[in-house]
Write a structure and sequence with these properties.
Length: about 600
């Protein structure tokens, strides 16, 4: 991962992993052949019936033209979205490891066993350098050791490559055989502490281990979804439900799906269908049939439809429409990838992004200490800004996440104009949930009508590492200001920042009556407790250098601070991914 020397202030993106929640898995018996995984379950975690717990991320957004929807992506971050602790600047280190569960290859008729897979470097993210690599090892059961049987050096984006390898040595053809992939990662010394996040991506698909195969076995008789249209709105991925219901012409009837025929022969898709269902109320469910179609051999085809979707009022404050595409193919096809789902969400916010972060956005370098970023939104009706949602990616060291001014501007000739709202002392929050936005309340009456801008003013020259969606490009709506002049973003993607709106300023009632938590005793000695704060409220204590020195959850108990030195601190309180309050703390032992 190479960064330029940041002599002048500029926009940057860093490639960022997303958090995964994986449960531990215990298995006593070896699994039987065949072993096959094409990662169609794109929920983040590898299938625990096939793989050991791993930091590898299962997704449908990082790779380019995979054999099927869903790949296993290797990068520099662990399952908690943190850069691995063994990371060193200018030195390679082992990062993600994907290890199969034990497999029984001891049966007498296990002849001609081969392992095959597809792989790709980079995808849409950061390319691994030549010195980086992806490694495959087999486990020698007899001698209890791992043997390297294949590797690939780092490279830039190309089509997926196919690899097939024999598993024919005696030390492998036993009960307890395993195989594993892992990647080597390196960071460049020119990277700054606030920009070291993630790097050096690899992607795997169609991992297949079975008997009665040959080195020429490279034909997969399978038709698979690879992608689905990701918004039914003309200008946004999501808008407030009440705004959608009150204005016509906001949605598009165009819909597209991508299918890959992995077979060496042309095939017939017997039936294509679309079903959409309103998930909150269950009041609407409609199915469309589109009939059969032929698809050529080894071809990725896009099918476009003009579907008269009618997102009707469910008489709720939000709506989620599940659009499910399905194909009917021959019985020998792998059925798990004959279906793909997209959820069209309507809540209380406007969004350009698709909800998944592939990178981090920031402004660093000379002049960045007071740099500004603003994202343009056009409201379909007048109302009030109630909150701003932001998703932050975690840098290598959280101490480099500094406070900023949350800011709103009106419009002047299509660019940010006067500041109409500014909130001080706002800090990035990392709550560990997958792509979880943090909601920052707007605690004054801020009316919006037509065009407005939301964003931030920096207080340091460190990158804020706001989530960046590389699959949706709204750069024409993004502006940054380093030397007193607004410029259009030169990057391609969507900064993950969203305005939440309401039709009346009643949201201020709770905010205005809230009092800051009371700390006692104060100054504090070995502990303190709190009044005016609800149980289950999370808190983080920062020192004056911005480092997080303590985290806790308040449940009426004393908060121990005996490990902290004398001095002033800042406590940040948040609950349900919304910042509630901040308070100063003085410790005197």
């Amino acid at each position: 991962m190479i960064h330029p020397l940041f002599l002048n202030g500029q926009e940057i993106i860093n490639y960022q992993h997303r958090p995964i929640n994986q449960s531990s898995y215990k298995k006593t018996k070896s699994i039987k052949l065949p072993f096959f995984d094409e990662f169609s379950n794109t929920t983040g975690a590898a299938n625990s019936l096939l793989w050991e717990q791993s930091g590898v991320f299962i997704n449908n957004t990082y790779a380019v033209n995979p054999p099927s929807a869903g790949v296993a992506s290797f990068d520099a971050c662990n399952e908690k979205a943190e850069v691995y602790e063994n990371a060193e600047t200018n030195n390679s280190f082992i990062a993600d490891i994907l290890t199969s569960l034990p497999i029984d290859l001891s049966e007498p008729n296990n002849n001609d066993v081969f392992l095959s897979f597809f792989f790709q470097a980079q995808g849409i993210a950061n390319a691994p350098e030549k010195a980086d690599s992806l490694i495959l090892q087999f486990f020698d059961v007899l001698n209890n050791k791992w043997n390297t049987v294949w590797f690939a050096n780092g490279d830039t984006l190309k089509d997926f490559d196919y690899v097939i390898l024999p598993v024919n040595q005696a030390e492998y053809l036993m009960d307890g055989f395993r195989f594993r992939f892992f990647n080597y990662v390196s960071f460049n010394a020119a990277s700054t502490n606030s920009t070291i996040t993630n790097a050096d991506f690899w992607h795997l698909d169609y991992i297949y281990l079975n008997k009665l195969r040959s080195i020429l076995d490279n034909n997969f008789q399978d038709i698979a979804f690879t992608d689905i249209s990701n918004s039914f709105l003309k200008n946004y991925t999501s808008i407030p439900w009440i705004h959608f219901l009150n204005k016509d012409g906001l949605q598009t009837s165009e819909f597209s799906i991508n299918l890959m025929n992995n077979d060496f022969s042309g095939r017939k898709i017997k039936e294509r269908s679309l079903q959409y269902t309103e998930k909150i109320s269950g009041s609407q469910s409609i199915n469309y049939q589109f009939g059969a179609v032929n698809i050529s051999a080894q071809t990725n085809e896009m099918y476009q439809f003009d579907v008269p979707f009618e997102f009707e009022n469910n008489f709720q404050d939000s709506a989620i429409f599940e659009i499910k595409a399905h194909i009917q193919t021959d019985d020998y096809d792998y059925s798990d990838n004959n279906e793909i789902i997209y959820n069209q969400i309507f809540k209380d916010f406007y969004a350009y992004d698709d909800g998944t972060s592939e990178a981090s956005y920031g402004i660093i370098g000379e002049g960045a200490r007071n740099a500004m970023f603003a994202c343009k939104f056009v409201s379909t009706q007048s109302g009030y800004l109630s909150a701003i949602d932001i998703y932050f990616n975690q840098p290598l060291l959280e101490q480099y996440s500094k406070p900023f001014y949350l800011t709103v501007w009106n419009s002047s000739n299509g660019q940010p104009g006067q500041i109409i709202y500014r909130k001080e002392g706002v800090r990035p929050i990392f709550d560990g949930d997958l792509n979880q936005f943090i909601r920052f309340s707007v605690d004054s009456i801020t009316a919006i009508q037509d065009t407005f801008f939301i964003g931030w003013i920096q207080t340091t020259d460190y990158s804020l590492n706001v989530g960046y969606d590389l699959n949706r490009n709204s750069a024409s709506q993004a502006f940054y200001n380093i030397a007193g002049k607004w410029q259009s973003s030169a990057l391609s993607g969507s900064v993950m920042i969203r305005p939440a709106v309401t039709d009346k300023p009643s949201h201020l009632e709770n905010i205005e009556t809230q009092t800051k938590p009371i700390i006692y005793p104060h100054p504090a000695n070995q502990y303190f407790t709190l009044q005016g704060i609800e149980n289950q409220t999370k808190l983080k204590i920062f020192d004056l250098n911005g480092r997080v020195v303590h985290q806790d959850v308040f449940n009426g108990q004393n908060i121990s601070i005996s490990h902290l030195q004398n001095g002033f601190y800042i406590i940040l309180f948040y609950s349900d991914n919304q910042v509630i309050a901040t308070q100063k703390l003085l410790i005197k032992h």
